[in-house]
Amino acid sequence: MSTGSPLLADLIEALRCLPGVGAKTAQRMAFHMLERDRPGARRLAERLAVAVEKVGNCRRCRGFSEQEVCSFCANASRDKHLLCVVETPVDQLAIEQATGYRGHYFVLLGRLSPLDGLGPKELGLDLLAARLAEGEIEEMIVATNPTVEGEATAHMLSQLARAADVRASRLAHGVPLGGELEFIDRGTLAHAFGGRQSLL
Amino acid sequence: MSTGSPLLADLIEALRCLPGVGAKTAQRMAFHMLERDRPGARRLAERLAVAVEKVGNCRRCRGFSEQEVCSFCANASRDKHLLCVVETPVDQLAIEQATGYRGHYFVLLGRLSPLDGLGPKELGLDLLAARLAEGEIEEMIVATNPTVEGEATAHMLSQLARAADVRASRLAHGVPLGGELEFIDRGTLAHAFGGRQSLL
């Protein structure tokens, strides 16, 4: 131990649970908080403890929530005819922040991956099927990641939608905005070419 | 708020007290901890709360410590004839980790900066003078930063040492290891040239 305080050394070690934080950054964070921002550090400790204790998953959409039903699901002003299915809560946040989407969500908390023990049951597909059977959803927007597992998941979701007679759609794939054709990977470019859309 | 959980939004906001953590990183950290590392997050919350509450300053060297006297000062195997004076606890850690130094430390918790209200009293120079007057210290190593304020602080420290009849030394300035002369700033290069040492 190279600090004069074992509690400080403990804190530095604990900070390394944060993603992307190594030994040096953890040191800098610990010293910064103790030297300059104890109120901020105290607030962080409290909120972290509360969040870990209280935040669970919404009964209806499986997103993060400290209530039985999250604030998205409880919001009556959101469009109840649209349901966007995502893999993780962070994808849900990304869509909420980037798009003007005002419908509801369903969070799979994973993707189809039998080797990792993630099957239809773990992804809550029975809950999703029940949701579709309620008859209110008119369009299910599949927003899984464009990976092999994400595609397999999307395929299964489309079957689920067909069984419930609900229209299913998928995020468009293609050249990202600001990207240059020269540097786009072949698969994406081929996909964008095949899926070209008419101008006007 | 773009998450389904107000507590999660609170946590994301609180994480921004960490140095170098902006909105995106705070989100990533919060989601990572809640999705994948709740034990780590709980431990972090506990240790942070304890550290903020308990870690104060060592009565003897002013470094961080949860005891009256820090583990450096309490360590009888360290050389009691050497005292290294640094500006901040993080400088103390840097020296401890990089060098084989096994003497004692004194932490100024700042540098001479009258405009910021930091004078001899705030830097604990009375405590340092009393320490030198004890008569055990044979060499005081001044390790303040090579900035204008750090140099002014070093100058005052050298006067303090002279008054107590203690030998004072200063970290060597010069070309950093691995640096290339071409890219070194003029001041440093001039200093390194003037302070050249004989080979063997």
List keywords for this structure.
homodimer, 200 residues, alpha/beta, Dna Topoisomerase Vi A Subunit, Chain: A, domain 2, two-stranded antiparallel ribbon, 12% strand, DNA_Rcmb_RecR (chains A, B)
Q: What would you say this structure looks like, in words?
A:
The structure is a homodimer of 200-residue chains. With 200 residues, chain A is of the alpha/beta class. Chain A has a domain at 79-170: Dna Topoisomerase Vi A Subunit, Chain: A, domain 2 (3-Layer(aba) Sandwich), CATH 3.40.1360.10. Chain A is 44% helix and 12% strand. Chain A has eight helices and six strands. Chain A has helices spanning 6-15, 23-36, 38-54, 71-74, 89-98, 125-133, 148-163, 186-194; strands at residues 56-57, 64-65, 79-86, 103-107, 139-142, 167-170. In chain A, the strands form two sheets. Chain A has a four-stranded parallel sheet with strand order 4-3-5-6. A two-stranded antiparallel ribbon of chain A has the order 1-2. In chain A, strand 1 (56-57) and strand 2 form a beta hairpin. The longest helix of chain A is centred in the N-terminal third of the chain and has 17 residues, at 38-54.
